[in-house]
Amino acid sequence: MKTTPVTAADLTETLMSVPPLARNADLSLNEEQNRRLVAHLEMEGITNHLYGGNANFYGLSLRQYAEALELLADLGGEESWFIPSIGPDYGKMTDQAVIAKETRFPTFITLPQAFGTTPAGVDKAIRELVQTLARPIILYLKTDPYLTPDLTARLVDDGQVCGIKYGINRPDSSVDPMLDELVKVVDRDLLIIVGERPAVAQHRTFGLGSMMSGSATLAPAASVAMFAAMKRGDYATASAIWAAVEPLEDLRDAIGPITVLHDAVTLTGIAEMGPVLPLVTNLADTYKPVVEKAAKALVAYNDSLAWEPVKATA
């Protein structure tokens, strides 16, 4: 497992997956199936893995948080890079940091909190977290009021933040006042695109250099090929790949992003994910046929692609 400090090159070199977390019937962590899912991703060249919302880290107890970190530390090979989440609220972040600081993960990503925050308060909490962890974190920007561009830049300049997951949704991803300001004050290579939907617009318009994907769990070759196409400026190919990914992403938006991805992995036979951790639920029976159809179509498209790893094409 990668334990060296995070650099911009780490973020831009390969696509990062955002997989769900497999569980047994009693909600304990399923090591065998989680290992199977990581092997599926790494066989296609994806060795960077972020465990956050799709893995429902929001719902982990402190005991299972420690168990999850222990599991992740042992899942991949020597080149694998695992980024666990922490937070989202101040109390949980503080308690989890005590556990996290004893591990060898080079960074953690903060889960976003949409309510009960102010930019100055978030800034203070991040600095306290980094002091406890003794390593910089990846910041997740999900809403406009969470942090200002200036405070974000100051956190980067002060060595508190080594990457920024940018997940603020816009009707048109090429029109984004927050990103307009961020790219003026933060290295673009530290700004990470969240998923295929905004990817072409954010790469072409704002020059964001990094990308992570949940759909890569089902279609790793497709996501890698899309990222590589964007990096060489082939936006027509990238857009064509997005068209194949879009039906499943539309279902994730309509039904629930965690639920659809979690059960889609099971329905395609990639790995048996088991029950999802409450407060979320698995797919209702009425949704399973449409999700299975879209997920299997995406896997079939993925399997049809001829692709080269990002490192060879970027």
Keywords for this structure?
TIM Barrel; 314 residues; globular; 8-stranded parallel beta sheet; single chain
Helix proportion of residues, in percent? 40-55%
**Number of strand segments:** 8
Q: Which structural class fits the helix and strand makeup?
A: alpha/beta
The CATH architecture classification is: Alpha-Beta Barrel
Quote the CATH topology. TIM Barrel
Q: What global shape is seen? A: globular
Strand content: 5-15%
Order of strands, widest sheet: 4-3-2-1-8-7-6-5
CATH superfamily: Aldolase class I
Q: Catalogue the unreliable spans.
A: 307-314
Q: Given this structure, which CATH class is correct?
A: Alpha Beta
- Mean pLDDT over the full residue set: 94
Q: How many domains, as an integer?
A: 1
H/E element string?
A: HEHEHEHEHEHEHEHEHHHHH
Straight-line distance between termini:
24 Å
Task: Return Rg in Å.
Answer: 18 Å
The biggest beta sheet is recorded as: 8 strands, parallel
Report the total helices: 13
Quick description:
It contains 13 helices and 8 strands.
Would you mind describing this structure in some detail?
With 314 residues, this protein is α/β, with parallel strands linked by helices. It has a single domain (8-313), classed as Aldolase class I (TIM Barrel), CATH 3.20.20. Helices cover 46% and strands 11% of the residues. The chain is built from 13 helices and eight strands. The model is unreliable at 307-314 (pLDDT under 50).
Task: Break the fold down into its secondary structure elements and pairings.
Elements (H helix, E strand, L loop, with lengths): L7 H6 L2 E2 L13 H12 L5 E4 L10 H11 L8 E6 L3 H11 L8 E2 L8 H15 L3 E5 L7 H9 L3 E6 L10 H9 L5 E4 L4 H8 L3 E4 L6 H12 L3 H21 L1 H11 L20 H17 L5 H4 L1
Parallel strand pairs: 1-2, 1-8, 2-3, 3-4, 5-6, 6-7, 7-8
Helix pairs in contact: 3-4, 4-5, 6-7, 9-10, 10-11, 10-12, 11-12
